Here is the input.
Amino acid sequence: MTETAAGIRIRPLDELDISAIVAIDEAISGRYRPEVWERRISYYLRRAPEASLVAEVDGKVSGFMLGEVRSGEFGLEEPTGWIEVLGVDPAQRGKALGRKMAEGMLEHFRSHGAHSVRTLVDEEREDILTFFSSLGFEPAGLRPFVKHLEDRRPG
Amino acid sequence: MNVKTSTLPKRYHEAVLRWKDVFLPDYDFLLENWDKHFPNDPEFQLCAYRELGMCSEIECGDLKGKPKAQKAGDLLPEQAHHLFGAIRAQASTEFGSIQQHRLTLARAQEEEEQFWILRMMAEELRHGYQMLHLLVEDDWSSVSKESASDLIEDVLSMNTGSHLLGAFNIDFDSFVDNVVFCALIDRVGKYQLAMQKISAYKPMAESMPQMLREEAFHLAAGVVPMRRWVTAAARGETFVTMEVLQKAINKWLPRGLEMFGDERGGGTNVRFGLKPMKNSEAQAQFYQEVEKLVRDLNLRYLRARIADLTHAGSETALDRVLAGETVEGIRCEDLLYVPAMEFFRRRGVPSFRLAGAQGETFATVPEYLQHLVRTLPEAYRASRDFKDYVEALTAVQEGRMTAEQAAGRMPALRRVAGACPCSKSVRWMVDDPVVVSAPQLARPVTGQPVA
Here is the structure.
């Protein structure tokens, strides 16, 4: 748990953060998806509860970053930190909450044997690309590919 | 992170396995289906974990800054005495909760939630194992005349009714209890583990991090189904109503508050560097968390009842309903509340007072009992535990007993029927067929001998 600046605290995620994360996601995406976050947060709490972090501003959860260390993804056998989901309440942007959470998460990854950290970013999201670049992330040799499958269900 | 794993000496390890065969018969079923429900999660291992590289100096109390004890013999006699009791109590709770959960595990309506609880039970088994490891890996002869075998047998022979803390002596009545217990009683467990993470006894401190990691999911295994249930209730589904949930909260919260110990105590643990908070401090923080949980559940309920509500709108609507307004047909009594800290208590400062769930007080025992009829689950009121409570309450209110005397009589060991658990324990281990007294999960026949 880190007190990074007046009123800002970075701490591990817990199950009582679900409502706040649902609200942040809703503020960003316009979608209310409690079931999605209940399942997703249960997953991270089961796998690595100390890896995923939230940022509190004056006691209110205003950002979250979910991730974990995994081995074997895409043939990457060495333990690798994966930052998978990031969200900051639009009303609290400009307080470097994302950077503070990333610093905490990278430290956790380092202490759990990861030598590199990876993430996937939508190329159209300039703000996210800029954010990760500012943290020292650079394009990796792995390129994402996708193939959309036609729906063959009857009807 | 540097973690060392180890197992108990063979005979004690096997005693735990034998206990597991009796009280956690679905263990093998869980492992067989692990990848289906928890894909890519590390396999479960029944062993003790010690996190290395933790703080080596005592972190609070009179001895702050001094080296932590590596062995029980390095502790002060009174310090060792307190710690020994705490380890034993912790072990009792871990094994005790499995005995409670198994009664109603098979009644879950959703397979996912059932497997969450089953995983949690396996991890509680590991937590109990971890505490036994602390008891047998060190020499506690300065505070206990019992041998390691006796200590293990003592813990493994406890059953619902003979555990050291009240919350573990109450039978579950439905799967609602499995879930609400996780959300409330495991939350107390989280506090205890987090406090013991700074223990002046280094092996205890080193035992806590892995237990805390596992406990984080146990809380989710309670909170997430509760959130789903309030949503279903708001939509008019009748499986688990708000009233049923409220009564389960009323049943368990008072026992959870008592698990922190008497509100006036805990100073000795702080002085000895065994915990960083006194009982009342930890209890107050726990209560605030439960308030947050219940508020979140109410917000979830409102969002499910009122289709076009925003997050901010739901917060406002909730405050209006709690203030007594009816909003879109929703009244305060439709929502959940956190029972008052004094409600239905049998230990601590407010024990055996006629204190109502919402802070009201009652003048006579019959009036109070009518209140309990309205606020506690029907099945629980038919239990021996409740009967014992009513008798003790009556004796206190009639002046035949002090509250302290009454508290000392609870829980009473009453469970005498059934197979002697000792026969499954350390000394008399025999290869007899496993007796399974609780329903098991549906599964293919494996040829395992079950009676």
User: Anything to note?
Assistant: The first strand of chain B starts at residue 2 and ends at 6. The two ends of chain B are 44 Å apart (CA to CA).
